[in-house]
Amino acid sequence: MSEVIYQLSYLLPYLIIFPLLSILLMVILWVLSKRAITNKNVSFYGLFMNLRFIDIAALSFLIIYYFVILASFFVTTYTSYSMLLFAIPVIVFNIAGFDGNIFRTLFSLGNAVLIFVMLFFKNIFYSYIVEISGSWYIVALFIMLCIFIFLYATYVFLNSLLNVLKRNKYIKKKEKKGH
After folding, report:
1. How far apart are CA 19 and CA 112, in angstroms?
2. DSSP letter string over 82-123?
3. What are the sequence ranges of the domains in the chain?
4. Res. 1: pLDDT tops 60
5. How far apart are CA 127 and CA 19, in angstroms?
6. Average pLDDT, whole number, for the chain?
7. pLDDT tens digits for 24-38?
8. Which stretch of DSSP H or E encloses residue 142?
9. Quick count: other Cβ atoms within 10 Å of Cβ 64?
């Protein structure tokens, strides 16, 4: 029991940071959605115009999830709290962004598991390079894996962002018109 409490003590800063960061991002996205649109900012602010609160919450957790992925490039050890830290924004994003499409939710969770497994293999490669052999082909595989993880995570992020933005009533009207 003391081991569980010890591991959970690592989570305490993240349990404080995640809600604060998500609230901050929700406020920023809400302010962006309510700003006046001019010719200079119409293309950016138009994406966030008239979003529902739940969509803003989903976007904030999606951004946190993407930053956790990028930050995990620099983490060299994984523990149980690392897995929980990785899973919290994904689960909350899928709960907040659930639109009745269970396939999309399962696909998003599958992508998160795949990214986590690839990050775990990145750490295995890193440990092998540091502790055993730093031969050029292992380093090349490590670099290619890191590039692939970055590209795949960016694709998943942009695809999830598009799915959240498609729920906007103005974008739905545009899709129905065929423009």
Report:
1. 20
2. HHHHHHHHHHHHHHHT--S-HHHHHHHHHHHHHHHHHHHHHH
3. 2-177
4. no
5. 33
6. 77
7. 877 877 776 666 656
8. helix 136-165
9. 20
User: Alpha-carbon Rg of the chain, whole angstroms?
Assistant: 19
| Half-sphere exposure at residue 7, Cβ-oriented, CA atoms within 13 angstroms | 12
Q: What is the pLDDT of residues 114-133, one digit of tens each?
A: 998 898 888 888 888 888 88
Amino acid type, 146 = C
Selection from 66, 73, 67, 64 nearest residue 120 by Cα: 73
Length in residues, the chain: 179
How many angstroms separate the CA atoms of 113 and 108, rounded?
9
**Residue in 93, 58, 67, 76 with CA at minimum distance from that of residue 14:** 67
- CA angle (113 as vertex; 93, 66 as ends), nearest 5: 45
